[in-house]
Amino acid sequence: MFFSSFGQEQSIGLLRDYKVKRITFSHHLGQYNVQADTSIIGTINPQQFIEIELVGGKLALKYNTIPQGNFSRITVVANGNGTLALKSKVPSVRERKYQDHFVISVVGGRMNIVNKVSMENYLCGVIESEGGGGRHAEYYKVQAVMSRTYALKNKSRHIKEGFGLCDGVHCQAYHNMLKYTPEIRTAVRETKDDVLVDTKNHLVTTYFSANCGGEVCDASQVWNNSVDHVVPFLDTFCVHTKQATWTKRIPKTQFRNFLVKEYGYPIYDSVMAKQIYSFEQENRKAFYIHPCLGIPLRDLRKEFKLKSTFFSAHPEGNEVVLEGRGFGHGVGLCQEGAMNMATSNLTYRQIAEFYFNGVSVKKYSKL
Q1: Domain range spanning residue 96?
Q2: Ordered strands of the 66-71 beta sheet
Q3: 307-331: per-residue pLDDT in tens?
């Protein structure tokens, strides 16, 4: 009876970075009905809550501290508009608030917590999680179009796990409902049904990073495969922002040992030994020093926790100094660049079409 109201809502796996063993759902707004398997348990009103614990492959349910039994599936459904506060007790995770409905089950021996949420509420939470507050309306609009496109294109990505998308950056960060930025909801509503499509009216894959460092990266340098609508080009909109440049110092011995051990860097070759700490990257490259050495810059970024792969290097005393540009993988839309474009009176359509080659904004319902 509870599922009739779910309609076309998104199915989002929550708290996927944790193996939750015990969690509480407490009242925040509205009224919720609780059903465990085929049993009607009751309602969650102000000052009320439920606690669910994973015990022997079953869900042990307490309703206002009173044990109700062990079940396979628990549904928590809003009677109208509703919001619940979720607090993982084991392990301890900071409280999060989400809107709409919830389904809790056991899949693969772990507790599966799924938020059945409207597209609007989902996008609002994603955009605030990904982009924060205080941004221009046109930036929020382009982020809404991108996030909607991603959600629709990947709506079955985790279907084998019992939901469509997860709440982590593996899909789209969704760490809370919209809390602080009402302008985001306005942007989502004003771009309702808008998506990004290619010349064949197919949904495109959308990528974004915090700052591209002045040059959008070719997707093949990050994931080995090129993407037709994501091509490298110079971006002057982000070069004077707070995350445009960075510096990191690494002990020479640590840097050298990694290159020699992992990639067989020819340290005993007199010519190559002199070059090991010297690297110029005026434009984006995929490999350190030379492709023949087979040292991907993305591996250096991961090993040394660099902000990006867009850096040059030089020796200084006992250290190698990396002077870098940008923050993130640099593929697709540059968030700080898009923010500057928005404040320069460019529309969300113009911003989207600037960062993604050969795409257009269209209504999903008309494709």
Answers
A1: 2-117
A2: 66-71, 58-63, 49-55, 22-29, 83-90, 96-99
A3: 999 999 999 999 999 999 999 999 9
